[in-house]
Structures are given as structure tokens and as C-alpha cells.
Amino acid sequence: MERIKISVLSGKGGTGKTTVSVNLAKTLKESFYVDCDVEEPNGYLFLNPKIEYEKDVNVLIPEIDYDKCTLCGECVKACRFGAMTKLIKKILVFDHLCHSCGACYEICPYNAIREVPKKIGTIRKGKVDALDFIDGRLNYGEATGVPILREINKMVKDVAKPVIVDSPPGTSCSVVHSIEGSDFCMLVTEPTPYGLHDLDLAVQLVKEMKMPMGIVINKAGERDELIEEYSQKEGIRVLAKIPFKRELAQAYSTGKLLIEVDEEIKNIFERLAKDVLGLIEK
Amino acid sequence: MKVAVSSQGKTLESHVDTRFGRAQFFIIVDDETMDYKVVDNLAVAQSSGAGTKAAQTLLDEGIEALISSNVGPNAMEVFKAAEIPVYKAVDKDVKTNIELFKKGELEKITEPTNKGHHHHW
Known about the structure:
Chain A has about 280 residues and is an alpha/beta fold. Chain A has 10 helices and 11 strands. The longest helix of chain A has 19 residues. The model of chain A has no long low-confidence stretch (mean pLDDT about 95). At the A-B interface, strand 4 of A face helix 1 and helix 2 of B.
């Protein structure tokens, strides 16, 4: 069987990516939940997986060998990220600005730069019932989570179960790397002007990446027509509406899965799972 | 002494730019003769690391002091390491700031004034 990858993204933060991802993963029962929101992974709070192992993610950063360095400054000029500065007697390296592109190392005419590993975060792998679990966590202050996402992508490349990717918010490189190669993108939004604005950014991104998509309206109720008019105009299906209820917010805040506390929500997710798998098969 | 001032314009009458890394220009003034040189801040368009790039430009110009306002942690580290003192600009033109600097009336900054504007890639 070909691997199936369903990515959940949103543009705007706080619309309910994790809510949709964990409930969907759990509804599918046999699935692989992947938390790619490496700056703030929180899916584990709802799934409570048993962690089987944890590994470090390292990147390479430059280290100057002053026996060879002539302070010519070529490395500083080559760095597009402002991660190196030349002083009178030394080169200052700003690890947390470095994107590990290797340009300084390649350009140095005196082979005075070594690339040394530096830990930027961790990946955890675990299980809960028939559900596999992975999450990545970027250390505070690091420039980019992309190296962690690359590593995660390798780990889920050939799994047989449907992979549910809980993407980071926004439309940055991290999102691109999280959702790359998806069979379907689920765009979670809320019926507010901000929700709509950022939904459009996410739609443009997914269009650019040429992947099929559908919309899930979370906290639905008062102004759903905001999103519905947009989806009609763009020709994107609204797959599901998750109603706004106080009890659901309460359940969420105590780390409960919505499908386990509310029958209506359980039905919504069962339909959603069936619809999406059906859309992918076509 | 060569003193750099972050500036919105290209003359001594220009208003200071309260930003450092993303200041439009730097005016490098000889505080004795009041001769000056205008440097375009190419780091303005930098999506990250603007502070360190701008600092490098000024180091290459051989400045001995900086007058600016919002100097972030990375740029501050560069100036500390290069032993270049940083002074807090008053919200007026470049010339006034140089005059206050000469009288020793500008406040010295030793800690970054903001936490940087980290951009998510």
C-alpha cells in the first residue's frame, strides 16, 4: 500500500490544528500522528503516548581554526544570515543565527573553517494503542526547525498507516517542509476575519505546492458564511464544521479528546475521516 | 573621533532613526571637524541577522562610537567584543546628537534594548 499523508495546517495560530489532528488520528485508530509544530508541540498532551525513544537533532555550525585563518572576511561576506562578524582579531560566530548552509565552509580560501555539530532539538517516538506517535521539539532561540522536520520526514517516509501531520502555524519554511508530499491538506480555520485572512495565505501556499485540499471550520456557529463564501469563490470544499461549545473548550483545556466527550463531535470526525480517505482514493 | 549615528536621512539635519539594524542610513561624523560620510544600510532588506550585518558595515568603516536607539542583543555583542561604546540617541537630529555626545550628555547603553526581531523561516 502507498503511504497516505494528510497534513493539517491553518495559516493562523490557535484555530485548532492540534484539535483536528489528534481527534482525526484517534478516529482512524490505526494511524501515525506526527507533531511538526516543533516550536510548541502539544499533541502529546491529548494522546498521552508511551515514549519509546528520543534522539537528538544536530546541525553543523562553523568553528574557526585561527592557526589557518587570515581574517580575510570571505566567510562573513558569504553568510546571508548575518551569523558571522569580523572583528580586528577574530570572527564572531552567532550560532543561533546560523542556518547551517555551509557557505562559509565552502568559500574559505584557507580551509580555516571546521563544521562542528550542535544540538538544536529532539525527536520523540512513541505509541498509544494502535496509534504511532512522533513529535519534534526545537530548542529555545534556534533559527529554524527545518532540520528536525527533514529528519521526521525520513522517519515516516515508508510507513503503512495513514500519517497525520500536525503542521506549525503560518506559511513559513517549516510549514512547507511539514506538508511536502501530502496526499491531502486539511486547512483548519475559524469564522473570523483573521481566520479568513490567514486561511487565504495557507490556500495560496497549498495551491503553489499543487496538493488537494479541503477546509474545516472550527469554533463554527456565528459567522460561518465568512468562510463559506470564500470557499465557494475558491472552489474548495468545506469538509466539516466543528461547533463552538463551552463544554468542548473545557474538555480541551484539560487535555481530553473531543471525540471522547461529545457524541456529535465523534460523528463529525468519523464522517471527516471517511470523506478524506475517499477523496484521496479518487 | 569617528562617530556613527543611525539616521532617517542623509544630512546632519536629518532625524535619527530609532532603529539600529533596520535604520535607513548611518551618518559617520568626525566630531571635531563635523565632516561626515553617509553609508546606506544594506542590512535593511535582511530577513534576519540585520543587526550583525549593520554592525559589520560600521566596523569596516572604522567607527569608534555609535549613537542609536534600539540595538538588539546580537549587534550589542558585536560592539562589546569590538570595544565600541554605544550611546542612546535623543529623539532629534543627527547634529544635536553629536553635540550632546561631545558634551558627554548621552547615556551609554551596555545592554541590548530589545530582544531582537526573530523571523521565522
